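Translate sequence into structure tokens.
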Amino acid sequence: MSEIIIVAETGSDVSAAEAAELGIELVPMHVSIGDRTIDDGALDPAEMLEECRQLGVLPKTSGCTPGDFAKVFDRIHAEHPEAQILYIAYSAVTTCSYESARTAAEGRDYIDMFDTAHVTIGQGFVVTGAAHYLREHPEVTLAELKAYAEDLARRTRMAFIPGDLGYLRAGGRLSNAAFLGATLLRIKPVIEIIDGRLVATKKLRGKMVNVALELIDMMYAQGPVDHERVFLVRSSGLPLAIQEAAEERVRELGFKEIRWYDTRNVITSHCGPGSFAVCMAAPVA
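Result follows.
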């Protein structure tokens, strides 16, 4: 029985503590604040937002470099020379990370990988699901684990409501016209992940607490749902009342396991403070 180690980016928003508990290796993405660049997760997101406010700048993000992956691959291979690696990737159309990993993996026949076509906790949902599957089936082969994770990625659906549209605009993920219109009309766009891309699919109006509940209902209504688990995501500044209302709603819908995740620096840089996301999956066909 060969050992398999799962690798993912910090942009999956899986916490360092959970990654350590599940044996997941995280490769850092990066954020630039003015003329300073930090690893994703190196700074509390609230502190990052405050630093940006004081400097009068918005954070800029960048993916993992080939060197970031090579460092992690080298360490894993040195510590576990017989281990195989499954890299479960952040959406390849949104960042250079997947290509960086391909470059770093050249000549390493013990590495396999695939593009989840998800970002933030959509990717995290797949990564943690694969890690739990590996723990429950230690005899699984690398090909079997990859097939399981690929199927889970296809079944996973995630969407979010940005807390501040200015962050999406600064990151090139929202046009100026859409930004101005949404701001003037107090619209909250629903951002879904479709074919790996962030797409505004619906416009919601009203207080954030009502919009968050509408987002949950909208995602739930898209088709059959596996009620085993649901992930709820918040960025710094999301009011507690909204979190409590969201958790009550998913309990009413019958989800058994409810997990909250906090966005790290990279995802906070895209969605801004006070954002909310929900992630769930269709049942196994």
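Note: Residues 120-136 form the longest helix (17 residues).
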